[in-house]
Amino acid sequence: MTLPLVEELVPAPDPVEACARFLGAPYLCFLDSTAADPRLGHHSFLSADPVTVLRTPGEPDPIGTARALLASHGVDPVPGLPPFQGGIAGYLGYDWGAELERVARPTGGTLAIPDVVLGLYDWVIAWDHLLETAWIVSTGLPETGPRRKRRRRRRKSPLASAPPPAE
What we know:
The protein is an alpha+beta fold and 167 residues long. It has a single domain (5-161), classed as Anthranilate synthase (4-Layer Sandwich), CATH 3.60.120.10. It contains five helices and eight strands. The strands form two sheets. A five-stranded antiparallel β-sheet has the order 1-8-7-3-2. The longest helix is centred in the middle third of the chain and has 11 residues, at 62-72. The protein is globular and about 50 Å long.
């Protein structure tokens, strides 16, 4: 396994303002927790432009495929950083339960959105709100060897290369 590249962002950017800079990016993922109580969560995560996207319909076993992707593209986590340092993120819709339970879905009135959308994210900006710090973490996924090292460096600077927020 390979350690990701990590750079502390000083000063730590505001998570909502950082997210606004990526509004046009594909598959923007913003997991925000501003809870001051560490038992309730005190990390936020931002990523976009995943390496690959799994979605239904189309992917018969998105969870199994996600597990296989993680197994084949393992990255050692960096101790002392927030827990999500790249990997699979997205959503599982409530209606996907009908697929899992193999029960009939209601007809009519359904939204034309996928039940499952999961992305394999190779970079993430992670905040620790208790420590008032933030880091950019770049894994270099899905590459291997020297190409992985080059991709980690190239993908480590998304905040600097993001377009400014729309006024």
